[in-house]
């Protein structure tokens, strides 16, 4: 794939070479969602057949892994070829084939209009952004419905709606779907769509990797759902061995889907990383890039570095389950600690993958709605960089009670508590920006302000968890569960909502209904806090996570939480209704700069033209210079050729001087 | 624009209230009041209580953390509330705010204060972790922070227990979905009930026969993962008589939610009569256990099943070290 992105062609803009476009066939003969589905079905059938062929005559060893009453090899190989068939059916390998035979490849933006491009392997980053947005909302709502099921079961300690196995499946599906797919909930839609616009680029660095990263997510989502007919998986989202090695065939779906999503975030993160570093417009210095870009930069660094650990770990478990390796079987020389280390070495950066894009969005939006420059820009950037670096040095706080490395616990207590320093930077910046501001309570701003409240609670309770003695009581209880819902749902999802209300006019040219938006906000904010605040008490009072029954004395609290959770669920429904109503039915146009923002992405039309900017803009000042006397416009969108060259030369000299 | 907003601000200093002073004064009052309220009203009742020394240490830790964190939460919430009301946008005012890009003194002060607080919390947490014998958390096979009289060799773990001089060793054996408790110093019997003497240091040796469980004796303040093939040690000292709940705190399969029972702390004399009664009750089983599965820090379930499960299963109807209460690979309803 590197061939397509060589500099000579990357610099080529404005459509394909004359006569280079491949001939247009009938719609059903062109690769799209329907051919991908056919490819997936054929691929699975082939893989399953191959797996049975290979393993026929080999009995499954009783001491090894895998479901005792099923052969797991055909299932795993089935998934493997399902993904290959899905991608081939989507037409992902077509350009590769064309190049092999020396034929011209497809133009990145050949298909500029029409609904069909959203169901195809489209290379325009703006199309991928919209694909991600719709996909993420679907995934989030599916996993959210499972959360409603969990709270329904927990209405009573004695009367059970679900049997214990079904409850365990629901808990596992909810946790895994949220944790693996929501890694891209902001980087996918807003990152892919807005990064080139915000740094003044006409394209992303690796449009094919970007599009593949999206088309892997529906495959991962569907494979994860196939766990249900295979008997589900009963080990939550953490997949601790040896339980996961022994579980029924649904566990194959968990490991395969999680690994696949790991691949997706590596590709997505790598693309954003290279785009931000290499595709900035002239004058877009490191001291001028928007905070949202800083947030995504940290996120993509962690995705690129932590993702491979996950892929490796899931691969090892799959070999334990199929070809009878024993990485995690103690009596055969493996260690269950190994999975815990691998998983959390990925898993802790992952929870910051889920936090940093939120930091980016709120810091990006605060100056717009306070009409003030961002307070202490460099401190904000340092905060994001600090969290990114520290995130790789804290993972063993998940193993405080496990008995591994007890003498290292003070060290991991220290590194974990150190994270509150860069996180505190974000609060300093937020509070400084509010000082003597002119605060406009628009819907995106309300979500940003709620983010600070939620993340304050989530962050402070994180300090409790980092303290080993206090954690002895909290570990594995609802306290921890409430803590990470405060940081992820209260942080990431609230920031995602802020981004939706703020950037949808940019991405679609259509404004969401603001009155419904305010209803959505207040129901979500109150419902969220009413749900998760009491869960801290529930955890401290001794209720472990992932249980289908609990102490009778805790029923009142649990009922309150369940009812609040239904309100929270209703608020999300309100959002979906608003989303569909505004974008499909009413379609109120908003093509200008509705928030009067200085952001570079708002300087071009909404939605932006095919190549974003007519000319590569020259950035003249930072994005947050609100109220600054004589501040130049953020960018010159129509630079004369000479100016462009001068600006490039200027920035080169500056760099040399620095 | 900036000049316009700054010039009147300087001239009208009398009219513009001193926001910083207001914010700090109200914050100090609120924070002190909230801290006092917490420490004297809520603090003594914070879980996990006083039954075990580890629990008491954890309660103290939680309270100290709360006293440090409450001012932070109160301060941030109060600042947000004050600024949202004071500096809200007013109708007809279309000017931008003052272009404040930063303030070096405030930034340095903020970073210094947060760093000092964090390092203080780290120092305090480390001290609390070490001081009461590892704070009740699982410390692995070779604990470095031991209870008094608790660094027992393997031989000492099976030698008769001397109350007051040695810690009482209780082996916690987890399996899907039940904990059983073996008392190696008291003849090596194994009981489905956890009973402990009052006023003694207890050493829990936690292990598992199948998957990872976590032994959580809630009111005692003990939590230690039960890993297969691993001996995980945790300490607590029972402070007074009472009962406590035991729950599994690590998802271990279908019936994880049902993996709980309760235990008792009894006065020493009552504990000893319970021991003799239980010894008599389980005498035959204990004989088989000690012959086939002598006390060890970990057990290999595959070996156990081959050598011993038959006679033990027949005699006891329940066992753990005997292996195979439930077949480990085919979980079904107990």
Question: How would you describe what is shown here?
Answer:
The complex is a heterodimer of chains A (658) and B (334). Chain A folds into two domains: 34-58 and 68-106, no CATH class; 107-586, Cytochrome c oxidase-like, subunit I domain (Cytochrome C Oxidase, Chain A, Up-down Bundle). Chain A is 62% helix and 1% strand. Chain A has helices at 7-10, 33-55, 73-89, 94-100, 125-153, 164-181, 187-199, 207-225, 243-246, 250-278, 291-322, 336-353, 356-370, 377-390, 409-418, 420-434, 443-466, 468-474, 478-508, 514-540, 555-586, 641-657; strands at residues 618-619, 635-636. In chain A, helix 5 packs antiparallel against helix 7 (187-199). With 334 residues, chain B is of the alpha+beta class. In chain B, strand 6 (213-217) and strand 7 form a beta hairpin. Chain B has two domains: 17-86 and 104-131; 154-316, Cupredoxins -  blue copper proteins (Immunoglobulin-like, Sandwich), CATH 2.60.40.420. The chains are: A mainly alpha (658), B alpha+beta (334). The interface between A and B is large, with 96 and 101 residues.
CATH class of the largest domain in chain B: Mainly Beta
How would you describe the shape of chain B? elongated
Strand-residue fraction of chain B? 15-25%
**Relative helix content of chain B:** 40-55%
Roughly what is the average pLDDT of chain B, rounded to an integer?
85
**Largest sheet composition of chain A:** 2 strands, antiparallel
Helix segment tally of chain B: 8
Strand order of the largest sheet of chain B: 3-2-1-5-8
* Rounded Rg of chain B: 29 Å
Find the CATH superfamily of the largest domain in chain A. Cytochrome c oxidase-like, subunit I domain
SSE order of chain B in H/E notation?
Answer: HHHHHEEEEEEEEEEHHH
The CATH superfamily of the largest domain in chain B bears the name: Cupredoxins -  blue copper proteins
């Amino acid at each position: 794939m590197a061939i397509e992105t060589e500099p000579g062609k990357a610099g080529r803009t404005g459509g394909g070479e004359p006569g280079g476009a491949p001939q247009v066939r009938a719609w059903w003969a062109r690769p799209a969602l329907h051919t991908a589905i056919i490819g997936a079905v054929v691929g699975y059938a082939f893989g399953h057949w191959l797996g049975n062929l290979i393993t026929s005559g080999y009995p499954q060893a009783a001491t090894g892994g895998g479901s005792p009453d099923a052969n797991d090899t055909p299932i795993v190989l089935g998934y493997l070829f399902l993904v290959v068939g899905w991608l081939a059916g989507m037409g992902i390998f077509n350009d590769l084939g064309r190049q092999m035979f020396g034929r011209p490849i497809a133009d990145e933006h050949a298909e500029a209009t029409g609904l069909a491009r959203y169901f195809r392997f489209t290379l325009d980053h703006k199309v991928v952004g919209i694909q991600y947005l719709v996909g993420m909302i679907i995934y989030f709502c599916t996993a959210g419905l499972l959360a409603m099921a969990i709270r329904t079961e927990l209405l009573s300690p004695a009367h059970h709606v679900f049997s214990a196995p079904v409850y365990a499946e629901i808990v596992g599906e909810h946790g895994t779907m949220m944790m693996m797919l929501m890694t891209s909930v902001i980087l996918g839609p807003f990152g892919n769509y807005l990064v080139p616009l915000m740094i003044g680029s006409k394209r992303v660095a690796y449009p094919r990797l970007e599009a593949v990263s999206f088309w892997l997510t529906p495959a991962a989502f569907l494979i994860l759902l196939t766990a249900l007919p295979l008997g589900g998986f009963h080990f939550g989202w953490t997949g601790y061995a040896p339980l996961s090695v022994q579980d029924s065939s649904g566990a194959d779906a968990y490991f395969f889907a999680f690994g696949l999503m790991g691949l997706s975030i590596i590709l997505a993160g790598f693309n954003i990383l290279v785009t931000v570093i290499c595709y900035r417009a002239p004058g877009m210095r490191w001291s001028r890039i928007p905070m949202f870009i800083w947030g995504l930069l940290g996120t993509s660094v962690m995705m690129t570095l932590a993702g491979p650990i996950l892929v490796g770990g899931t691969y090892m478990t799959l070999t334990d389950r199929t070809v009878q390796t024993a990485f995690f079987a103690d009596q055969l020389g493996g260690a269950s600690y190994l999975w815990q280390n691998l998983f959390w070495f990925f898993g802790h950066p992952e929870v910051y993958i889920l936090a940093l894009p939120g930091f980016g969005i709120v810091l990006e939006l605060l100056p717009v709605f306070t009409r003030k420059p961002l307070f202490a820009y460099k401190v904000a950037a340092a905060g994001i960089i600090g969290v990114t670096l520290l995130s790789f040095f804290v993972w063993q706080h998940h193993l405080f009670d496990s008995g591994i490395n007890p003498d290292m616990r003070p060290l991991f207590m220290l590194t974990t508590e150190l994270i509150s320093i860069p996180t505190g930077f974000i609060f300093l910046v937020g509070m400084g920006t509010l000082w003597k501001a002119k605060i406009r309570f628009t819907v995106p701003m309300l979500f940003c302000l709620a983010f600070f409240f939620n993340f304050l609670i989530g962050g402070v309770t994180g300090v409790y968890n980092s303290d080993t003695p206090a954690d002895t009581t909290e570990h594995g209880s609802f306290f921890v569960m409430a803590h990470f819902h405060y940081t992820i749902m209260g942080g990431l999802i609230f920031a995602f909502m802020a981004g939706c209300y703020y950037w949808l006019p940019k991405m679609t040219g259509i404004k969401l209904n603001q009155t419904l938006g305010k209803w959505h906000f207040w129901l979500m904010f109150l419902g969220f806090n009413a749900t998760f605040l009491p869960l801290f008490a529930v955890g401290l009072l001794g209720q472990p996570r992932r249980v289908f029954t609990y102490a009778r004395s805790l029923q009142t609290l649990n009922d309150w939480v369940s009812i609040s959770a239904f309100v929270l669920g209703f608020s999300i429904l309100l959002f979906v209704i608003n989303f569909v109503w505004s974008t499909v039915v009413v379609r109120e146009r908003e093509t200008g700069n509705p928030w009067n923002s200085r952001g570079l992405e708002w300087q071009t039309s909404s939605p932006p033209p095919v190549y974003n900017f007519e000319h590569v803009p020259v950035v003249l000042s930072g994005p947050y210079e609100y109220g600054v006397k004589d501040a130049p416009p953020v960018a010159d969108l129509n630079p004369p050729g000479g100016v462009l060259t001068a600006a490039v030369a200027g920035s080169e000299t500056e760099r040399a001087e620095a | 624009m900036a000049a316009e907003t700054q010039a009147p601000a300087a001239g009208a200093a009398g009219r513009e209230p001193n926001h910083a002073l207001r914010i700090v004064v109200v914050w100090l009052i609120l924070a002190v009041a909230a801290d006092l309220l917490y420490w004297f009203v809520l603090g003594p009742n914070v879980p996990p209580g006083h039954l075990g020394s580890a629990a008491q240490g954890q309660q103290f830790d939680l309270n100290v953390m709360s006293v440090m964190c409450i001012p932070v939460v109160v301060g941030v919430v109060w600042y947000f509330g004050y600024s949202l009301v004071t500096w809200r946008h007013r109708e007809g005012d279309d000017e931008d705010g003052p272009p404040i890009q930063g303030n070096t003194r405030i930034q340095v002060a903020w970073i210094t204060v947060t760093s000092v607080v964090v390092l203080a919390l780290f120092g305090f947490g480390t001290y609390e972790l070490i001081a009461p014998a590892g704070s009740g958390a699982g410390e692995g096979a070779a604990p470095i922070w031991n209870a008094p009289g608790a660094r027992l060799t393997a031989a000492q773990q099976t030698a008769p227990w001397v109350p007051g001089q040695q810690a009482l060793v209780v082996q916690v054996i987890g399996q899907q979905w039940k904990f059983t408790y073996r008392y190696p110093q008291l003849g090596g019997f194994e009981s489905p009930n956890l009973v402990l003497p009052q006023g003694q240091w207890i050493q829990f040796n936690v292990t598992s026969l199948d998957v990872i469980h976590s032994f959580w004796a809630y009111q005692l303040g003990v939590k230690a993962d039960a890993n297969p093939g691993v001996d995980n040690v945790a300490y607590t000292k029972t402070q007074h008589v009472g009962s406590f709940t035991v729950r599994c705190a690590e998802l271990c399969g279908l019936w994880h939610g049902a993996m709980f029972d309760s235990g008792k702390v009894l006065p020493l004399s009552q504990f000893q009569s319970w021991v003799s009664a239980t010894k008599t009750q389980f005498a035959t089983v204990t004989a088989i256990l000690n012959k086939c599965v002598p006390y060890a820090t970990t057990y290999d379930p595959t070996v156990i099943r081959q050598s011993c499960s038959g006679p033990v299963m027949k005699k006891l109807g329940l066992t753990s070290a005997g292996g195979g209460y439930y077949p480990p690979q085919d979980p079904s309803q107990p």
